Amino acid sequence: MIKKSNQILIKDHLFDYIITYKNNKNIFFRVKDDLKIYITCNRFVSDNFIRNLLIKDQDSIYKMYQKALENTKDKDDLYYLGNKHIFIESNSKPYISNDYIYAKNIIDAKEYIYSLAYDVFNSRLKQILIRFDNLPSFRLKVRKMTSKWGVCNQKSMTVTLNSDLIFKDVHLIDYVIIHELCHFKHMDHSKLFWEEVSKYYPYYKQARKELNH
Q1: What is the pLDDT, as a whole number, of residue 74?
Q2: CB–CB of 121/173 below 8 Å?
């Protein structure tokens, strides 16, 4: 499966679009909650053909965009480190002040919150590492994941945290970090693993319930 990304101007709006090449016969368009256009097509379809098709179907594409935008406004409350923030429309660069977040639109506001994730997670990681001994050298990575809050990969020596954790309370971020660090000692979820977690985070059961809520 091969993916390509590009941009296209439709009705004065610059869209990111991502093409996924599969063995399907038809071409499918979809605008997801991140407001990007996702295209699935056969690998023999040319980039120019896709662009021309997007322009030809720009009315329907823009309607999909507007629907996705409305859905995003309806369902996405803005949270940062567990606290709900009120969105204030502003022409300035996005920033947070008290319980308010200022940005041009709610999408920019959410992207700004995501942009803070690495620095916040890295800061928490440094604080937690002081409590651990004999850990191997590893890299911190941050990306959006659909089914996991974190991953410890001993082969690549990385700890990856789900960017959506930036919406959660700090103590939950700490739990996920501790959970993944303990995997360097126990790569399973055995009794010994949970005993190791409990040394650093005694209330891990409550944290798991909160994350799965």
Answers
A1: 46
A2: yes
